[in-house]
Amino acid sequence: LYHERVVDHYNNPRNVGSFDKSDPTVGTGLVGAPACGDVMKLQIKIDEESGTIVDACFKTFGCGSAIASSSVVTEWVKGKQMEEVLTIKNTEIAKHLSLPPVKLHCSMLAEDAIKAAVKDYEAKH
Amino acid sequence: LYHERVVDHYNNPRNVGSFDKSDPTVGTGLVGAPACGDVMKLQIKIDEESGTIVDACFKTFGCGSAIASSSVVTEWVKGKQMEEVLTIKNTEIAKHLSLPPVKLHCSMLAEDAIKAAVKDYEAKH
Ligand code: FES
């Protein structure tokens, strides 16, 4: 039913946690999925000199596919520039995790959350 | 955002696991939520002489509200008669967990699953 990568990230989610929202080097994305009512918080920590994302974390009460999607995205963004991660598409995440069509909105949460986190960081500066 | 009971059951879900589906004393309910695509498996173990549910367990990749709903239901059904648990309504579960309206479909999964488990047990006999 679920791809082994979903099961893996569900059982051992990477980078679960929170950064201090008020830290000027932190960008916070808080987004919701209208389809199911789930909410996701994803945060990035930026090296201000280089604009590199040095750390990322998430929290969600969403489903296994949402957990896996955000877990994967927090791994993908580390070491990348902010502009780079804005090109991450939910379809890429869904493909990586072999999500069925009914679960696309879960990967959309992760795409929306990383975009919102970058936007929040930029709004602070 | 989430009631403390949801957080409690999400962090320490009760009765996660599986019984042997082919055991004649076991009833298995496997149901899906069209709203979000999540699936839940809930199983009961029956004392054949008295018709009492002596044990229950569940598994799901659903969201925090679905996990909490099924965790609560597995606690509620233990020690009850099969006919009794057929009267469990998702609105009771939702009220107990203070689920918001957008999360009612998650508690519906638990109601559907316990009904399906009883039906499966009955079909075996
Ligand atoms: S069903 Fe809500 S995030 Fe997946």
UniProtKB/TrEMBL annotation, chains A, B:
<keyword id="KW-0001">2Fe-2S</keyword>
<dbReference type="GO" id="GO:0005759">
    <property type="term" value="C:mitochondrial matrix"/>
</dbReference>
<dbReference type="GO" id="GO:0005506">
    <property type="term" value="F:iron ion binding"/>
</dbReference>
<protein>
    <recommendedName>
        <fullName>Iron-sulfur cluster assembly protein</fullName>
    </recommendedName>
</protein>
<keyword id="KW-0411">Iron-sulfur</keyword>
<keyword id="KW-0408">Iron</keyword>
<feature type="domain" description="NIF system FeS cluster assembly NifU N-terminal">
    <location>
        <begin position="2"/>
        <end position="125"/>
    </location>
</feature>
<keyword id="KW-0496">Mitochondrion</keyword>
<comment type="similarity">
    <text>Belongs to the NifU family.</text>
</comment>
<dbReference type="GO" id="GO:0051537">
    <property type="term" value="F:2 iron, 2 sulfur cluster binding"/>
</dbReference>
<comment type="function">
    <text>Scaffold protein for the de novo synthesis of iron-sulfur (Fe-S) clusters within mitochondria, which is required for maturation of both mitochondrial and cytoplasmic [2Fe-2S] and [4Fe-4S] proteins.</text>
</comment>
<dbReference type="GO" id="GO:0016226">
    <property type="term" value="P:iron-sulfur cluster assembly"/>
</dbReference>
<keyword id="KW-0809">Transit peptide</keyword>
<keyword id="KW-0479">Metal-binding</keyword>
